[in-house]
Structure formats: C-alpha cells, structure tokens
Amino acid sequence: MGCRDVHAATVLAFLSGTASVAGLLAAVLLPNWRQMRLYTFNKNEKNVTVYTGLWIKCARFDGSRDCVIYDPQWYTAVDQLDLRVLQFALPLSMGTAVSALFLCLVGMCNTAFVSSVPNIKLARCLVNSAGCHLVAGLLFLLACAICLTPSIWVIFYNNYMNRKYAPVFSFDVSVFIAIASAGGLFFTSIMLFLWYCACKSSPSPFWQPLYPHAPSMHSYAAQPYSARSRLSAIEIDIPVVTHAS
C-alpha cells in the first residue's frame, strides 16, 4: 500500500485516540476518584461511604444510590493535593489529545483527497500527511504523560493519607479509567510513529514531515565551469565566420 493511502494504522490510531479522550472525559466527570468509608458501631445506623471526585463530593449510606450529602461546590474547596493537581492535568491532557486528533484527521484527509503532487501553499505552511501524523503522535505522547503521572500519584497519595489519618481511604474506579485512557493514548502515538516509519521508506514526497521548499520548485545543479564559460559575452554572442579563399 502506498504512502498516500489511508493505512489501517492511521484509522485504528484515530479510533483509539477518540476512545481514550472519551475515557478521560468519563474519568473527569465521575465522582469516583477516592472513597472514604465511615463505620458506625450503632446497629440502628448504616455505614457511610463518601465518594470524592474532582468537582463534586457525594455521601451515601450502604445499599443506597441516593446522595444524603451532595456538594457541587467541592471543586472550589478541594483539600487533597493529588485531586487538585488532577483538576488541571486531566483537562490539559484532554485538550492536547483533542488537538492531536484534529491533526490526525487533517493528515488522513490530506492523504485521501489531495492530488499526487503536494499543494504548494500547504507545503509552504509545512502541512502534509506525515508531518501531521508525526506531530499528532508527539502530542498523544505528551497527553499520555500529563494524564498518567498524576493518576498514578493518586495511588501513592492514598497510602499516605491512610498512614497519616486512618485506613479508611481507597482509590476508586476513575483511577483505573484514567490509567487505561493514558495507555490508549500511548498506543495511539505508537501506531502513528509506526505509520510514519513505514511511510518514510516510500520515495513519495508525502512522507516528508517538513518541506524545506515548495515541492513544485526544482533545484538545478550548476553547470560545470568550462573553458567556454571564460569567453566574453561578445565572443559568445557573435560567432566567428571565416571565408574560404
């Protein structure tokens, strides 16, 4: 398959990136980053579980799905450092991944619909298929690092809180969703890098990530300096005519 064809790798990378962004969105919105179990020794009362998210906090009795305490203003009063960092890191990771998805889509459309000769205006703007995929792969890798680092830190910070206060804290499902989404972003970047490496072996100009000059402009090698070039303009333009006697 030629370099201009939309490989299955690019389509799979786009779908994987879209699923990863959707997973990040779910992790951001779900109030399930940390649980705090509060036990009671009164047989007439039920234990309470406090579900802490990035933006809201919800307290529920065991066996109930309704929140007895619902705090929609929790995001303004977060007192846990790892969750405060995640409030900034996950939206930043999502924005980076969305930008990478846009570049990936531009690269796919460029390979599918442009002519065999790259457009001179696009080339001057350094826009081409492989360049879009290469930059998109780097952005996906950056989004993975931004998401994965604070998500793993939640696990260690949870152990710190258990040692400092009481062993009542546990990380919840949003941590696993965020880590899985980061893995999807890493897989997406690998697929785009593999596509670029496979496309690089093609002689087509579409693999070049950055055009040094417009592809329609050809550079010509200088002619060899010969004895003829040392003649003056008059000698070159005016031929010498000899008459036979």
TrEMBL record:
<feature type="transmembrane region" description="Helical">
    <location>
        <begin position="168"/>
        <end position="196"/>
    </location>
</feature>
<keyword id="KW-1133">Transmembrane helix</keyword>
<dbReference type="InterPro" id="IPR017974">
    <property type="entry name" value="Claudin_CS"/>
</dbReference>
<dbReference type="GO" id="GO:0005886">
    <property type="term" value="C:plasma membrane"/>
</dbReference>
<feature type="transmembrane region" description="Helical">
    <location>
        <begin position="6"/>
        <end position="30"/>
    </location>
</feature>
<keyword id="KW-0965">Cell junction</keyword>
<protein>
    <submittedName>
        <fullName>CLD12 protein</fullName>
    </submittedName>
</protein>
<comment type="similarity">
    <text>Belongs to the claudin family.</text>
</comment>
<dbReference type="InterPro" id="IPR013287">
    <property type="entry name" value="Claudin12"/>
</dbReference>
<keyword id="KW-0812">Transmembrane</keyword>
<keyword id="KW-0796">Tight junction</keyword>
<feature type="transmembrane region" description="Helical">
    <location>
        <begin position="88"/>
        <end position="114"/>
    </location>
</feature>
<dbReference type="GO" id="GO:0005923">
    <property type="term" value="C:bicellular tight junction"/>
</dbReference>
<keyword id="KW-0472">Membrane</keyword>
<feature type="transmembrane region" description="Helical">
    <location>
        <begin position="134"/>
        <end position="156"/>
    </location>
</feature>
